[in-house]
Amino acid sequence: MNYFVFVVCGAKTHIDTLNLSLRFLRHFSRYPILVVTDTRRNEIPVEHDNIIHVNTPDEYDHHQASIYLKTGLHRFVPDIQNDTYCYLDSDIIAMSDSCNQIFNYKPEPIIFAQDHCSFWEFSPNAMNCNCISDFNSRKHEFEKAMFSYFEDFKPLNEKTYAELEKLNMVFNRLKKQPYKNLRLLIKYLVSRYMPVKNDIILAGFRFNKKNRCWYDTDGNMISFDNRYHKSRLWEQQHIYFKNGVWYNKNLEDITPKTLHCEHLSDFIKFKYGIAIPSQWRHWNGGVFVFNISSVKFIDYWHRITMEEFKDPRTKTRDQATLAISAWKFNIQNMNTLPVKYNFIAEYNNANIRWNDEKGYTFNGFKSIFEPVMLHVYHHWDDTSWDIWQSVIRLAEKNNIQIGAKSF
Fold first, then answer.
1. Whose CA is closest to 3, among 92, 121, 118, 82?
2. Using an 8 Å Cβ cutoff, are 31 and 3 in contact?
3. List of residues 6+ apart from 89 with CB closer than 8 A
4. How high does pLDDT run on average in the chain?
5. In what helix (H) or strand (E) does residue 22 lie, and over which residues does it extend?
6. Taking the CB of the first residue and of the last residue of the chain, which one, N or C, has fewer CB atoms within 10 A?
7. Are residues 319 and 285 in contact, defined by beta-carbon separation less than 8 angstroms?
């Protein structure tokens, strides 16, 4: 028999998340669904009829208790000797009945999907180091210096990213097909370089010739004349750009970079004697398939995860110990689940998008992607986000209750 299995513990917000995910999975699944929980901890009931109660150690907080259950699932499921199980984080939304096909992937000894980042990008989120705060300070320094003279500058959000993308598409069209768009091109060039008007209107966007900035239809500044403002930056802030790097007046590199560090790799090498390359693409613990062949692996994963609860150098998570387990068992390079079974929706990644006509993309609509399971690990219930709008649309199509409203 095949089973889907969730784990939850504690706070209402987590159980609300699970209850919604359960509605989607119940709609599409052909297999039974289990929820493993410590009912004593839960602020509200789990809306499901197949619940396995487990008394978790009292000394653990709710987050630790959830990890205790997750990494110990082989001990709590009905029949590990004969059955196969697919674990899902409570924020995994089943998108279609293709979710049932995940059981075609055999755990040998276990199978996960890859995470969305490399190991050294994950490191600051796993270690109690200062790298996140240091990165945010450097980023703030850059933004403060770079944009201090833009009175109406606001960091780009999801909506302004979308507007900027539209503006870039207009310019790409003018560059690649100038003759086809000759009338629009002439209109733009005349408006831009003839000293008649202060503003240029292009495909609904406005360019202020005085401050050389682009604005969307809501009046948000979304772009600017790079060459002009680079010169202005040096004149006013003594900041300059060279070979892809921004420098301040002290010749220090203040370019915002992807947050990363090697503290996790160093920690694992020192404590466990395992050398994990920083660029290795580790596994994401949100979805995995396991059976009797997985028991030795999960036992080790569970044991070292419980041990790490006591180490103040590491944060309370299970992915670092999952990586250690993978390398300990020498299965770090085995095949993983296709990304469609754990499509990680990143709010701040403008390339991960959805619209009702095209569907989903992970590369800014250069190609279209059909996820089977959507992993909404942050900005849950954010109706301004197109990814969450897709969840609402899916609920509408399938008459699935979402929130207080039934579709």
1. 82
2. yes
3. 6, 285, 286, 287, 375, 377
4. 87
5. helix 12-28
6. N
7. yes
Give the global pTM.
Answer: 0.76
Segment 382-405 shows an average pLDDT of 88
Give the pLDDT confidence of 241-274 residue by residue, as tens digits.
676 677 777 887 776 667 889 999 999 999 999 9
HEC assignment per residue over 343-396: EECCCCCCCCEEECCCEEECCCCCCCECCCEEECCCCCCCCCCHHHHHHHHHHH
Separation in Å, CA 3 to CA 56, 238, 267: 22, 61, 36
Please state, in angstroms and as integers, the Cα–Cα distance from residue 67 to each residue in 19, 64, 82, 125, 299, following that order.
19, 5, 24, 16, 13
Distance between first and last Cα of the chain: 32
With contact defined as beta carbons under 8 Å apart, do 2 and 33 qualify?
no
- The pairing of beta strand 353-355 with beta strand 359-361: antiparallel
User: How buried is residue 86: exposed, middle or buried, by Cβ count under 10 Å (0-12/13-18/19+)?
Assistant: buried
**CA angle, residues 166, 168, 172, in degrees to nearest 5:** 115
Strand partners, 369: 360
Q: What SS3 class is residue 90?
A: coil
Predicted pLDDT of residue 150: 55
341 touches 102 (CB < 8 A): yes
**Mean pLDDT over residues 165-171, rounded?**
74
| 15: exposed, middle or buried (Cβ count in 10 Å: 0-12, 13-18, 19+) | buried
Domains and CATH numbers, the chain: 2-129+266-398 (3.90.550.10), 131-247 (no CATH)
